[in-house]
Amino acid sequence: MTVLPLPAAHALLPNGLRDLLPPDAQDEAQTAQRLVATFLANGYQRVKPPLIEFEESLLSGAGRTAAAQTFRVMDPITQRMMGLRSDMTTQVARIAGTRLAGAPRPLRLAYVGQVLRVRGSQLRPERQFTQAGFELIGAADEAAVAEVLLLAVEALDQAEVTSVAIDLICPPLVPALTRALGLSDAEAAEVRDLLEQKDLVAVSQTVGAEKARLLVDLAACVGPAERSLAPLAALALPPEAAALRDSLVRLVRQVQEALPTHDLTLDPLEHHGFEYQTGSAFALFARGARGELGRGGAYHSVLADRDEACCGATLYLDAVLDVARRAPVPPRVLVENDLPREARRALQAEGFVTVPTLAGPASPEEARRLHCTHFLGPDGRPVPLAP
Amino acid sequence: MTVLPLPAAHALLPNGLRDLLPPDAQDEAQTAQRLVATFLANGYQRVKPPLIEFEESLLSGAGRTAAAQTFRVMDPITQRMMGLRSDMTTQVARIAGTRLAGAPRPLRLAYVGQVLRVRGSQLRPERQFTQAGFELIGAADEAAVAEVLLLAVEALDQAEVTSVAIDLICPPLVPALTRALGLSDAEAAEVRDLLEQKDLVAVSQTVGAEKARLLVDLAACVGPAERSLAPLAALALPPEAAALRDSLVRLVRQVQEALPTHDLTLDPLEHHGFEYQTGSAFALFARGARGELGRGGAYHSVLADRDEACCGATLYLDAVLDVARRAPVPPRVLVENDLPREARRALQAEGFVTVPTLAGPASPEEARRLHCTHFLGPDGRPVPLAP
């Protein structure tokens, strides 16, 4: 296929939005399908929420962090504002808490779909993503998070994305610690920024050496799990932080046992983009992918009078496609457009794409012109075109 | 799965938008995948345009009829208006005419995706549809339309939608006739309305008995092809109308030969919703489906300095799902959540969904509570739950 990568052609689309061309569009669809097949085989059932819904339901609960990233449109029928989803997790939680409120817990739901964001990031200029994910509704302990993490890795493995590296984090851990240390909200926010910049000296200057000690000790636990897990487990922490840490440590041990050859990194200071996580969480990476392959963790779904502990994972198809094995391009054979259906189907069953000719005979020249790999010989068998 | 069909739960979503729940969401995805697999096996290559793009490209050419049905959003980056697609045909034509301008013709492209419409119709209140379709770019004679029509029927057949009924139409035929009769635009529009109401007396009164004769003769050709084709072929028409009619007749004969047992209906007066068709066109129906399964036909893609004859077909998944065979629901077996991966994968290879237990042992009672069909016996084999 001759593709024109002209700037003029690109400029037809808004920044961050793009056309997927052959073979990428099919590769993405096939990879999404393989990921979902693994979710379904493991007890998750597919749901499909709409692309737009009332902004008050789309941006409630865990969705409120998405408000700035959500396109709004007016519904001319109800005269109410609707939002174009920028994430599907809130929608799945809404379905679980309303239409499926009576289904037994834990409830396992899977989804795949498009999401749109008002702005791309520097790392990911794209504004439309394909998300494939699943949610475990009604469970969020480390066994639940482990199920979700291991299933995400298994799905990637089935899509032939191997050598996945895992970051294990606990977004509420630092806030629990700063609360226990009696820091004000302003001090806590400043400390988070300084920890992120690894400026431990400034942390000490801000809150004093005594209060900084635990934070500095925690910062020393960032690194490969085989080196960092023991010091993290040994830290003397105040009760709330200790409970979160203990849960993270149990999760890491479970993941180490299940995935002994994967790279596990502990990052108990990480929190960006995980604002709605209420316990252990994770991000998945692979060499060759521009950004995260996916992420997940524990959160709460709060809907009207119902508050459910949940966990889930989302995979981003654009990043997964950077590293997933691409399906081989099938051979294409030019056939007369009146070739009987049975003959055509027999060639397709052998793995050929049959390309009907519309102008003139199905000659080798026409086959070459239409980017076929084969033409039909006099005996009706495909003959490869000379290279 | 216990589903609450409460009005309160429904009211969470804007009118015409809905959640697909298990098993419908998976049935839709699987049916779409089967349709596309047939398109791809027959030489069409998948493309995936974005959900939103600049309205001037989305609503240009054949897309201009969609303007009233298109949600608009402002792009905060470029400050230009973007539209949420209400149809994918224009997007695929744009791709063909820009990025793939250098690809050999005929160019065969397939797609599946969501479209959104500002308002639903009485027959179809839905405002979000899944479209699966394909476009044949650079060909629009009756051989091309026949390829497209027969492939659409074959794809439905592969999705186990049988007994498809076909309406064959020619939207530009009546306009060609009214032009040849020298009717003004206003008279022509009035005549179309009257023909639609089958008010042939009023047609005569409006344009006079002599001019009305051909229109009345044409109206007599509406009906089953085996009865109506011969009179349509025999009509003495002015040249432009005769050429369109001849092409329709050749198409009908080709379809009769290929699909001898299908119901074919001629409706040379039909034009609603086919405003951008430039030649023969068709709509597909099946008993049990609320609306059309799909439609297609010949059109022109006009992009900047390029004008290409095209034809294509679109299938609507909501209507197709009304009549497609649903996949059997797989058996679900409850397993301990630490069941080794190999044992789990072996059960999945046998067709079981494995549902991990998170609370307590994988007992028959827990299996029943989680809507499983089986539990694991002491020998590790699935045991069906007593009904």
TrEMBL record, chains A, B:
Residues at which L-histidine binds: 87-89, 117, 131, 135
GO molecular function annotations of the record: glycosyltransferase activity; histidine-tRNA ligase activity
GO cellular component, one term: cytoplasm
Gene3D superfamilies, per the entry: Bira Bifunctional Protein, Domain 2 (3.30.930.10)
Start and end residues of each Aminoacyl-transfer RNA synthetases class-II family profile domain: 39-328
InterPro entries on file: aa-tRNA-synth_II, aa-tRNA-synth_II/BPL/LPL, HisRS-like_core, HisRS/HisZ, HisZ
UniProt KW keywords: Amino-acid biosynthesis, Cytoplasm, Glycosyltransferase, Histidine biosynthesis, Transferase
Annotated pathway: Amino-acid biosynthesis; L-histidine biosynthesis; L-histidine from 5-phospho-alpha-D-ribose 1-diphosphate: step 1/9
Subcellular location as annotated: Cytoplasm
PROSITE patterns: AA_TRNA_LIGASE_II
GO BP terms: histidyl-tRNA aminoacylation; L-histidine biosynthetic process
Function in brief: Required for the first step of histidine biosynthesis. May allow the feedback regulation of ATP phosphoribosyltransferase activity by histidine.
Family according to the record: Belongs to the class-II aminoacyl-tRNA synthetase family. HisZ subfamily.
Note: This function is generally fulfilled by the C-terminal part of HisG, which is missing in some bacteria such as this one.
Complexes and interactors: Heteromultimer composed of HisG and HisZ subunits. Homodimer.
Protein name per Swiss-Prot or TrEMBL: ATP phosphoribosyltransferase regulatory subunit
Organism the protein comes from: Pararhodospirillum photometricum DSM 122
Encoding gene (name): hisZ
